[in-house]
Write a structure and sequence with these properties.
One of its GO terms (cellular component) is ribonucleoprotein complex. The protein is an alpha+beta fold. It contains four helices and five strands. 32% of the residues lie in helices and 18% in strands. It has a five-stranded antiparallel beta sheet. The chain is globular, with a radius of gyration of 18 Å.
């Protein structure tokens, strides 16, 4: 069992039931999935960029990513509907908790001048999104193998629908917030 999953079941659920007065343990906010998305704008000119992004995202997440395609045409970007423009991986279950553990304890501290995550990344449903400027901060990626530096978005989808309780869940799981 993943370390954070065990922590969630043994410590966080009883703590949040006591703090917020939940009548049912199923009402306690929980992480339902983590979506890691890489938008590859250079994929229109160079197909190798998209292949490299897929390979690297597969190394980072531990599963094969799917290619995302343009939903509509934009003439100013020379983009047609259906063109492959990125890749994403959706993590659930044990793999999701292991990824979150690596992200919080290994990857985020490797970011230069990192002082914590902003609390402004929460949406109205209580989900949290953060952006990483380059894939080189992940220990799975070797700098010699990277030809194109690529950023990514990480969205943590949380049940519960309340910003404050979602933030409390992530804080107890070890996510470093600066404010």
């Amino acid at each position: 069992m993943a370390r954070l999953l065990k922590l969630y079941k043994e410590k966080i659920i009883p703590e949040m039931v006591k703090k917020y007065g939940y009548k049912n343990v199923m009402a306690v906010p929980r992480i339902s999935k983590i979506v890691v998305n890489m938008g590859v704008g250079k994929a229109l000119e160079n197909k190798k960029c998209l292949e490299d992004a897929q390979k690297q995202l597969g190394l980072i997440t531990g599963q094969k990513p799917v290619v995302t395609k343009a939903k509509k045409s934009l003439a100013e970007f020379k983009l047609r509907k259906g063109n492959p423009i990125g890749c994403k991986a959706t993590l659930r279950g044990v793999r999701m908790y292991e990824f979150l553990d690596r992200l919080v304890n290994v990857t985020l501290p490797r970011i230069k001048d990192f002082r914590g995550l902003s609390s402004k990344g929460f949406d109205e449903a209580g989900n949290y999104t953060l952006g990483i400027h380059e894939q080189l901060v992940f220990p799975e990626i070797s700098p010699e193998d990277v030809e194109f530096v690529q950023g990514m978005d990480i969205t943590i989808v949380i049940s519960g629908k309340q910003k404050e309780r979602s933030k409390e869940l992530l804080r107890i799981l070890g996510t470093p917030f600066r404010d």
